[in-house]
């Protein structure tokens, strides 16, 4: 039964060839072979160039090297080609999933204070194109690179990676780890890009030691030695540099930066301690500020209470002063009123006393008059004198009345203006003569007494 199964495929094959025809099978096979040969020949004659690459083509017949810059198809003519990226990037961040021309691990570095670590960063380089040969016939540009390195992988490992590593380490040696984690990563990245582009600085170390401890031996230092880096300068003040190794090949630096540094474990422990100390210090400072603010608040509240108490005291004092002034004014007014009342009373009393004195004097005069009247009533002479005086007064009044009276009508004949009548004048003369006679008699009586 097995022999029957083995015979069946062979029979089928024979039947297929017999049906299709041996000649046709050979014809189809020949066509496929010719197409494969044509495709192979075409790939050796015409090829394709990518937009981000430059190709160095070596002729299969003459061996001459040419640089192909244009993207798209080109005539290969059975020659050999080597591809170079126009911009080569080297990624040393340690990220294996990154996209770059070369991915390498972190670059080990050592700071000025001998602390070690690993640098993370990226550097990008632009390769030159087709540069004409020099006067001596020496190749330049990409042809020189291809002549010395032969491939992009060799160029990266033997030149670009070496230049990146040397400049990263040279930049790290210019600062201490404390300067770096205190904010010096930007300066480190700037130094790296500067030295990679223009050449590594020529530097010298300056070692300064601390003061010696007098209690210890002279060869023991009480403080750690301090090392600083000084960049040497020429007579014009320009920084001295080593020749850049990339400049000889016309390679330019597009970008170079150090992203971060992975410190060794003891530095991380120191950083954690410093972070904790900084946090404690910040907390203490915050508590101090809070206490100071609270103290200021208490002082302000105390001053406010004192000011309020002082204001109340001033208010009470002013009120007391006002009350005292009011009482004083009232007392003055009352005193003035009492003085006025007393003065009025004194005046009234003086008037009363005056009236009383006058009354007393009047009483005395009256009494004296009465006494005199009593005495005179008994004295005939006094009675005669009084009678005589009364008669004199009567007669005087009578003659005065007669002198002023008109006894007869006053008729004036032939008298000029301004002249008096003769009758009136005559009567006045008689009255005056009677009065003079009476006066002389009275004077005579006084003298006889």
Overview of this structure, please?
By secondary structure, this protein is an alpha+beta fold. It is built from eight helices and 14 strands. Helix 4 crosses helix 5 and helix 7 runs antiparallel to helix 8 (422-448). The termini are far apart. Keywords: Coiled coil, Membrane, Transmembrane, Transmembrane helix. This is Band 7 domain-containing protein. The chain crosses the membrane at residues 25-48. Residues 274-328 form a coiled coil.
Describe what is shown at a glance.
By secondary structure, this protein is an alpha+beta fold. The protein has helices at 2-20, 22-45, 142-149, 152-172, 177-198, 265-378, 380-404, 422-448; strands at residues 46-49, 53-58, 65-68, 72-75, 80-85, 87-91, 102-103, 107-110, 116-126, 130-131, 140-141, 203-208, 226-231, 252-263.
Layout of secondary structure:
Blueprint: H1 2-20, H2 22-45, E1 46-49, E2 53-58, E3 65-68, E4 72-75, E5 80-85, E6 87-91, E7 102-103, E8 107-110, E9 116-126, E10 130-131, E11 140-141, H3 142-149, H4 152-172, H5 177-198, E12 203-208, E13 226-231, E14 252-263, H6 265-378, H7 380-404, H8 422-448
Parallel strand pairs: 6-7
Antiparallel strand pairs: 1-4, 2-3, 2-5, 6-9, 8-9, 9-14, 10-11, 12-13
Helix pairs in contact: 4-5, 7-8
User: pLDDT average, as an integer?
Assistant: 77
Low-confidence region ranges:
1-8, 212-223, 411-415
- The count of strands amounts to 14
| Secondary-structure arrangement, i.e. CATH architecture of the domain at 86-210 and 222-263 | 2-Layer Sandwich
What integer value in Å does the Rg equal?
77 Å
Question: Which sequence of SSEs, written as H and E, runs from N to C?
Answer: HHEEEEEEEEEEEHHHEEEHHH
**Beta-strand residue fraction:** 15-25%
Major pleated sheet: 5 strands, mixed
Q: Tell me roughly what share of residues is in helical segments.
A: 55-70%
Enumerate how many helices there are, as a single number.
Answer: 8
Keywords: Coiled coil, Membrane, Transmembrane, Transmembrane helix
Coiled coil: 274-328
Transmembrane segments: 25-48
Protein name: Band 7 domain-containing protein
